[in-house]
Amino acid sequence: xxxxxxxxxxxxxxxxxxxxxxxxxxxxxxxxxxxxxxxxxxxxxxxxxxxxxxxxxxxxxxxxxxxxxxxxxxxxxxxxxxxxxxxxxxxxxxxxxxxxxxxxxxxxxxxxxxxxxxxxxxxxxxxxxxxxxxxxxxxxxxxxxxxxxxxxxxxxxxxxxxxxxxxxxxxxxxxxxxxxxxxxxxxxxxxxxxxxxxxxxxxxxxxxxxxxxxxxxxxxxxxxxxxxxxxxxxxxxxxxxxxxxxxxxxxxxxxxxxxxxxxxxxxxxxxxxxxxxxxxxxxxxxxxxxxxxxxxxxxxxxxxxxxxxxxxxxxxxxxxxxxxxxxxxxxxxxxxxxxxxxxxxxxxxxxxxxxxxxxxxxxxxxxxxxxxxxxxxxxxxxxxxxxxxxxxxxxxxxxxxxxxxxxxxxxxxxxxxxxxxxxxxxxxxxxxxxxxxxxxxxxxxxxxxxxxxxxxxxxxxxxxxxxxxxxxxxxxxxxxxxxxxxxxxxxxxxxxxxxxxxxxxxxxxxxxxxxxxxxxxxxxxxxxxxxxxxx
Length: 535
Known about the structure:
This protein is α+β, with helices and mostly antiparallel strands. It has a domain of 299 residues: Beta Barrel (Porin). Helix content is 24%, strand content 38%. A 16-stranded antiparallel beta barrel has the order 1-3-4-5-6-7-8-9-10-11-12-15-16-17-18-19. A two-stranded antiparallel ribbon has the order 13-14. The longest helix is centred in the first third of the chain and has 66 residues.
């Protein structure tokens, strides 16, 4: 069609030129026969200009048509290439089906040699099974492609942004009295109005996150992420328990070179990097205040990885952190310095970890340290420190063991010491009041069993304990939270089932036991059913 169109336009152009010349010649001959003098040159200019304009228009149309023909040729070449690739794929599939048919025939011929109780599969059944598997894999690939397409989010910076998160519903029941109904961490004494238990549901542990992938800076890939949930409290309104307030969790900026990274922002303490797996405890990491150092803290750190032979590597991390102490804010809208910040120096921390990747899952051991200094006024200073150890050990193909241990002092800002850094025997405004840093020890361990890719079971136990001698140092110890708690333990078992890649169900049972200084003990049981949708 385009060739005929081009020929037609060329013919039209020739016809116009021919008619123009014939018209000019006939005009001159007629005027010569009548004895008229030739017209002035200027009388021919309008006709020539009109002819030139039409010729220019036809020339532009020819140029456009040539470009369109070139594009059509490129498209035709692309289609030929796709057809050739499709033919090759069909031929490969045909050969694969032939091999499956041969294998199925061999399988059928060997069937009589099996035991009488075995039920041999027909060749058609074997081929159908393989085809069903191929179809399932194709659907999975299509879902992944659709998922990649859905990750396109517009950004004012024009860099790639990814939206992620989880809508999580928790339905729970508790027997006994606890500090927090939907996510308990401590068992507490029962009040006069308390019943023997309670029931409720919440979605405030739902998570929302953004990731941005920026340009290269000094040879490093830049990226950042932001996460928040709705676990920041309740508005003072009717039924406010169902409309949790938004809360910032983490916000990080990263520069990643091949073996070195620079991380700045608010994140979990890098010298205590692990947490147990749980969908019942998402607003706080599982076993918070039961041996898990976890508090999301503003920090700057540098990470370096040294690779060795046979799949092993050594990672070194070092950085500075905001020296939090765990104190409650004095005001809702204004920030006053905590005791660690009044010392005018940051906290310092580091971690060294060894990883061996030669097994089905990486084997990891790590050790870390933390130090900060706290100023409680009137020359009362306390050294805050911690030594940590963490591990992740695969036990065959289906089991794994993870955990952490710590020993330290004045670690309330990291969730250690059951949230307290110090105890004192009077008002802090009194210069005669003594301040004592709390020594504490804690840890946790989790055994994971994955019978299939979609199902996992987790058994977890942890505890946090302060030294009784510190709590009994004063006749009536004081602190910014309950000073009477000496030990807190938590054990749990849960099952998590991945129905699809983005749909999860979980069931968890948790037992809490909290001991006070003078032999008082409280227990509570918590059952939690969760449904989560990832996006």
